[in-house]
Fold this protein.
Amino acid sequence: MATIRPDRKYTAEHEWVDASVSPVRVGITTVATDALGDIVYLELPEVGAEVTAGETCGEVESTKSVSDLYAPVTGTVTAVNEAAVADPALVNREPFGEGWLFAVEASEEAELLSPEEYAETTGADIA
């Protein structure tokens, strides 16, 4: 069973937001990595790009499928995790740590789920 972090907010599309840092960091959950399987390619927004909460901003390609990546916040992308781009399997190994995807100077959040709400809808455990 997938385990999620209690210190993040979540989207229904399986992205997480860490608002304890500024700019906020964005990644995908263990629920997503479990469903996708081995991640082989990431298409992430470029630094300086504007992303809009709830809209697609990239793709995650795995051995099973290609999935859209949705922005959980509106704002300007300030960083992309080049380590994850170079080694997409890092997202599988550490989705809540070194496998983060990008950072955003956020001006607005999408309608995000608490850890409890996300766990209830996905069946994940909260670590």
In short: The longest helix spans residues 115-122. The longest strand covers residues 73-80. The chain has a mean pLDDT of 97. The radius of gyration is 13 Å.
